[in-house]
């Protein structure tokens, strides 16, 4: 078997199936073990117990599928043409959803394409045995992608490519074929610390190290309990995930837009009014988020996130009324966030009233309006 030619064919087939880049690497991740264990020992994984449970397996991908000796790593762009970043983030009455979650869940689409790639390879080589992965097992996707030459690890811990930025999903095929491997690319973050500086909660505690317990994506997606009160004001109107570190990254000037219809923004989730989302009952939430990654967090976490965003929104009596009306409808955890949001809204109301009174008195005394 000419494995060099097969490797070239695999990359061509992958691109024909909609993967923007395909690379091949061995499965040796021993260099990742010490750093991963230090991160876990520091508790930076938060409530993601599954990270601890399968820690050892994560750096031994060959144990995930017997006989595997290579990973075929792929990436797929997901940034829609009408991303609408500024429009949503700058309007506190709208809810911001991480751009990867605006369309359909990527897991099934990418897994299907990876299976198709596996079958193409098998048609060319009967000896192939493979298994596809898309966030579906304890596997360190980013280090594998970096070893396969798909990009380098940025200081925000995401994979970066100088021709494609970071707006892409990753997936892998573990295979039993001794294919030639690709070389990692040069890291090109240099002295830039834009992602570290811009992070609203300062979750990037040092270059290449993320404390998930402070990350807005973790707080709004992975965390199932109450969001720490001191972090709530910093979340703003981000109700599912956060893209700030990608938005500020200079390399994303070269990001490529997706041509996948499944990743196009859903109308109900693209720059939605917070009060509109807040008024959904659980049945509406489940129906509207069917086929979306958002559905996995459940209605209670969704309501929790919305309550925080409503508390951070500009003062509005309608928000206070809506928060009060929903109290007691879900659970105690949501109620606690509602109470916090109500306090925030009422404090803003009191502040606004004081400002109006000061201005009125100044005008009555004939003083300058800024007195």
Descriptive report:
This is Epoxyqueuosine reductase. The protein has 371 residues and is α+β, with helices and mostly antiparallel strands. Among the domains are: 160 residues, no CATH class; 99 residues, no CATH class. The protein contains 16 helices and 10 strands. Strands 1-2-7-4 form a 4-stranded antiparallel beta sheet, with helices on both faces. The chain has a two-stranded parallel sheet with strand order 3-10. Strand 5 and strand 6 form a beta hairpin. Helix 1 packs antiparallel against helix 6 and helix 15 runs antiparallel to helix 16.
Rg from alpha-carbon coordinates: 24 Å
Q: Beta-strand level of the residues, as a percent range?
A: 5-15%
Q: Label the overall shape.
A: elongated
SS-derived structural category: alpha+beta
| Order of helical and strand elements | HEHHHEHEHEHEEEHEEHHEHHHHHH
Q: If helices are DSSP runs of H or I spanning 4 or more residues, what is the number of helices?
A: 16
Structure summary, number of beta strands: 10
Q: Into which percent range does the helicity of residues fall? A: 40-55%
Distance between the termini: 84 Å
Mean pLDDT metric = 93
Query: Tell me about the biggest sheet?
Result: 4 strands, antiparallel
Which parts are unreliable, with pLDDT below 50 for 5 consecutive residues or more? Answer: none
- How are strands sequenced across the largest beta sheet? 1-2-7-4
């Amino acid at each position: 078997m000419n494995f060099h030619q097969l490797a070239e064919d695999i990359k061509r087939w992958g691109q024909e199936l909609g993967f923007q880049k395909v690379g091949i690497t061995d499965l040796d991740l021993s260099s990742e073990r010490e750093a991963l264990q230090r991160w876990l020992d520091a508790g930076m994984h938060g409530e993601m117990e599954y990270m601890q449970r399968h820690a050892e397996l994560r750096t031994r991908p060959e144990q995930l599928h017997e006989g595997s000796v290579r990973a075929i790593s792929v990436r797929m762009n997901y940034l829609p043409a009408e991303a609408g970043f500024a429009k949503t983030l700058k309007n506190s009455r709208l809810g911001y959803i991480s751009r990867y979650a605006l369309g359909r869940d990527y897991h099934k689409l990418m897994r299907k394409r990876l299976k198709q790639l596996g079958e193409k390879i098998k048609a060319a080589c009967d000896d192939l045995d493979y298994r596809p992965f898309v966030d579906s097992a304890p596997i360190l996707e980013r280090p594998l992608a970096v070893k396969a030459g798909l990009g380098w690890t940025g200081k925000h811990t995401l994979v970066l490519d100088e021709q494609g930025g970071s707006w892409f999903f990753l997936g892998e095929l573990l295979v039993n074929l001794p294919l030639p491997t690709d070389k990692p690319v040069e890291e090109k973050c240099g002295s830039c610390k834009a992602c570290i500086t811009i992070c609203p909660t300062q979750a990037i505690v040092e270059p290449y190290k993320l404390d998930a317990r402070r990350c807005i994506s973790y707080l709004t997606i992975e965390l199932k309990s109450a969001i720490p009160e001191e972090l709530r004001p910093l979340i703003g109107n981000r109700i599912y995930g956060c893209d700030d570190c990608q938005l500020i990254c200079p390399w994303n000037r070269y990001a490529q837009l997706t041509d996948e219809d499944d990743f196009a923004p859903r109308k109900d989730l693209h720059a939605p009014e917070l009060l509109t989302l807040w008024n959904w009952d659980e049945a509406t939430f489940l129906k509207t988020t069917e086929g979306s990654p958002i559905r996995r967090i459940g209605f209670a976490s969704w309501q929790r996130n919305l309550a925080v965003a409503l508390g951070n929104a500009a003062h509005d009596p309608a928000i206070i009324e809506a928060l009060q009306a929903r109290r007691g409808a879900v659970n105690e955890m949501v109620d606690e966030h509602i109470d916090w949001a109500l306090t925030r809204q009422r404090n803003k109301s009191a502040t606004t009233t004081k400002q109006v009174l000061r201005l009125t008195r100044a005008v009555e005394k004939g003083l300058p309006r800024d007195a």
